[in-house]
Amino acid sequence: MNTQHAYYKSLMKLSPIECIATTQKNLNFLQSSKKIYGNKYRVKLICIVTLSSCLGMLSSCMKVGPDYKRPTIHLPDTWTTSIQTDNQSSITGSQRWWRKFNDPVLNKLITISRKANPNIRIARARITESWYQRSVLASAWYPHSDINARDAHGLGTWDESGVNWDPGSSREQLAQLNVGWELDFFGKTKRQVESATAEYEAKIEGWRDATVFINSEVALHYIAYRTLEQRLTAAIQATKNYQSIRDMIAQRVEDGLANQLEFHEAKARLKTSEAEIPRIQQEKAVVKNRLAALLAVQPGNIGPMLAAHQKIPTPPSSICTGFPAELLRSRPDVRRSERKIAAQSARIGVATANLYPQLSLSGAITYEYLLQGISVATLRRTLGLGPNLRWRIFNACGDRHRIKEQESKLTQAITTYESTVINAVTQVENSMSRLHYTKKRLNILKEAADEHQRAADLMKEAYLAGQVDLRRLLNAQQDFIKTKDESIATAGRRAAHSVRLFKALGGGELPQPRKQDKAN
């Protein structure tokens, strides 16, 4: 037994050609040993040598088709210099970026969404599905067997005259054990597993990409909710200011210092301001419901999660954007596209393997028994073992056309990867630009709102002194309200652009598959 094991181990180290040569050499030896050992031992030795050769060839089989090489893509060394200096700090996209907004409610919402969001749960289930699909393909590496059994009892016969019942007149029994093993000489199964493994890894990146998307969507909707809260507060305050002006005009009308035209004009401005409140409330309700959907809760249950009258989350003053080349490893959508290329490259090998013969070993242990009347019609006890060869030698060039089809799909996958990288760079550049200029605009709007407030206060004093008419007072008040509302909206946009920049840089710290989801 040890000698045979050593012989098998030596064959496992040989190439297929060397295995064939070794087998032929051993067969020649057996031919010369016929007279010494006799036919019985010669057949046994032939079986051992043939099986050993097959095992050696199986372990060292070749893989047809192209071996995967990661595509090369050239990226710029740095981002746009004119806006890069404003976006540098020790904060990077690889950290939990949502914590940098210093908002505990936002942290809580993202934590809930990462566990409960349906899209993330579906993406996680797809990882498990893909892993078992790979396992099914990998099972082809090993022998398989099945059992077929039958026990039929006759009830009689029938002819033109009808049915002649005769229970027990016949009986048929069959028991068969089949075994098979497909020898993957040209690597078709290996290429299938290689493709399935790449698809499994792509599903992991798809799960991470879904997590990045949901994280950013929760943050964007939360920022929009807080922005609408601030705008609603400002709209209510504006309505109070117009109410004060209307009451002031009403008193002046009673005192004979103003006319009905000024009163109705002040009242119209008040109603216009009041009309803004339901519009903002509607937008706030819609955003709240969307946020509830992201957290997989009923709209009525999200209210306690949102503390009332919170300020807009303050983004970090600067963000480290790194270098464009880092997007290739930081963005899950880019990594997913690259894994798609690897999967498609392996499919070319699967299609190429169809040009070559497929060899398998099969065997069966059969017991068959047929009783008719009192005589045994058939009795079979057989043991079988032998190779099966299948080779599609004429298929109207269909197999070669399938190879061209897979090569075309590979070109599409590479192009998609390149497009994904370009879009990633563009998204970062756009996010940096929007954040940079929104920050500048916000600073200007804050100064403008302060100036409009001072002007409105002075205009009110001038109106009471009879130096200006009511229209100028109302216009000054309207300019202040409009600038204040735009300042709040721009503060929300700045926070939202910060979220989009973190998303464009890769989405922060990404989840890892559970141990049971990882490939062995």
Could you list some keywords that capture this structure?
single chain; 520 residues; alpha+beta; 4-stranded antiparallel β-sheet; two-stranded antiparallel sheet; 12 helices; 62% helix; elongated; disordered N terminus; disordered C terminus
Structure description:
α2 (16-32) packs antiparallel against α3 (34-59) and α7 (188-254) runs antiparallel to α12 (470-504). The protein has 520 residues and is an alpha+beta fold. Mean pLDDT is 83; it is low at 1-9, 11-21, 33-38, 40-49 and 515-520. The protein has 12 helices and 6 strands. The protein has helices at residues 2-12, 16-32, 34-59, 81-84, 104-116, 118-138, 188-254, 260-294, 327-330, 332-353, 398-464, 470-504; strands at 144-153, 156-159, 162-165, 170-183, 358-372, 375-390. The strands form 2 sheets. A 4-stranded antiparallel beta sheet has the order 1-4-5-6, with no helix packed on it. A two-stranded antiparallel ribbon has the order 2-3.
Short description:
This protein is of the alpha+beta class and 520 residues long. α2 packs antiparallel against α3 and α7 packs antiparallel against α12.
